[in-house]
């Protein structure tokens, strides 16, 4: 009986994996994306994330280690996918975009994850000040509808790509299942570099 249950469980898992594996990036990476690493890298790792998501915060240092380990072979693209259950995630995404307008997206990215428990508007402005951003411009950008439209477009692209939770990763345009741990991400990047 246990063997039958294990066999059925394995078939369901295989079906779920094959459905999951079919998801590909619906919106190709472009120059408009927030990217870290060379455009000609052999591997492009796209993350759909949420600055208020605890799992995204846990993934951030792992992704940094991957970038350090594989160097110029990997480029990271971060796309916003703020979840409705996180009340400050949209404003945090807007703050990152506003910082990006001043060339400091990645610095703000790191600050937001480092201070994940403090993402209220006043804190966000404080982080902008800490990064020595032009605060008048930051305030204008936070109120401008363009960054919000960009975030909404990334959410839509994520949904069309099969994103259901954060973080969700794509390696060279193909979704990578990390539900059993981020070692799978490292393995996938390593395999893509060998191909």
Helix fraction bin: 40-55%
The H/E string reads: HEEHEHHHHHEEH
As a whole number of angstroms, the C-alpha radius of gyration is: 18 Å
Q: Which strand order do you get reading across the main beta sheet?
A: 1-3-2-4-5
- Mean of pLDDT: 90
Percentage of β-strand residues: 5-15%
Number of helices: 8
According to CATH, the homologous superfamily is Glutaredoxin
**Residue runs with pLDDT of under 50 for 5 or more positions:** 1-20
CATH domain class name: Alpha Beta
Oligomer: single chain
Number of domain modules: 1
Write the CATH architecture name.
3-Layer(aba) Sandwich
Largest sheet: 5 strands, mixed
CATH fold node name: Glutaredoxin
Principal-axes geometry comes out as: globular
Structural class: alpha+beta
Strand element count: 5
Terminal CA distance reads 41 Å
Structure description:
By secondary structure, the chain is α+β, with helices and mostly antiparallel strands. It has one domain (25-194): Glutaredoxin. The chain has helices spanning 2-21, 54-70, 89-100, 105-114, 121-130, 135-143, 145-160, 183-194, and strands at residues 34-36, 43-49, 74-80, 168-171, 174-176. The protein has a 5-stranded mixed sheet with strand order 1-3-2-4-5, sandwiched between helices. A hairpin with a 2-residue loop joins β4 (168-171) and β5 (174-176). α3 (89-100) packs across α6 (135-143). The radius of gyration is 18 Å and the shape is globular. The model is unreliable at 1-20 (pLDDT under 50).
């Amino acid at each position: 009986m246990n063997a039958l249950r294990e066999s059925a469980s394995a078939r369901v898992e295989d079906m779920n994996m094959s459905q999951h594996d079919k998801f590909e990036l619906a919106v190709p990476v472009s120059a408009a994306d927030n990217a870290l690493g060379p455009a000609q890298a052999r591997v492009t790792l796209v993350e759909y994330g949420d600055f208020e998501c605890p799992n995204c915060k846990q993934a951030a240092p792992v992704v940094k280690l991957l970038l350090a380990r594989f160097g110029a072979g990997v480029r990271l693209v971060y796309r916003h996918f703020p979840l409705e259950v996180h009340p400050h995630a949209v404003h945090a995404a807007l703050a990152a975009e506003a910082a990006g307008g001043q060339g400091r997206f990645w610095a703000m990215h790191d600050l937001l994850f480092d201070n994940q428990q403090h993402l209220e508007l006043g804190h966000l402005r404080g982080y902008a000040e800490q990064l020595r951003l032009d605060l008048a411009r930051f305030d204008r950008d936070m109120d401008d509808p363009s960054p919000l439209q960009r975030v909404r477009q990334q959410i839509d692209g994520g949904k069309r790509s099969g994103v259901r939770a954060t973080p969700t990763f794509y390696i060279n345009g193909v979704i990578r299942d990390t539900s059993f741990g981020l070692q799978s991400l490292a393995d996938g990047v390593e395999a893509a570099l060998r191909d």
